[in-house]
Amino acid sequence: MPHALIVDDSAATLSALVELVSAEGFTTSAALTVDRAKVELSRQSPDIVLADLNLPDGTGMNLLDAVERDAQHDERKKHQRLPHRSRRVGPRHHTP
Q: 73-85, pLDDT tens digit by residue?
């Protein structure tokens, strides 16, 4: 079964995402902070990471950088795909 790590500093959003992703057949780990997400990463390598951009102790991009570095330096993970980075599209952000 694929595994997802979900990181968001809003407990309500985190809970909703865990429910949604679980319903799609994933096992999940959840974290409210980058530091907690790194603990979860050390326990199990996810197949996908969903991370909020703005977190109390860093950014989702910081977390994806850590995942990428870990994959590059761990021989067992060299086969993994590197993170795909997406950004939110909204009134303040526009992706051409």
A: 665 554 455 445 5
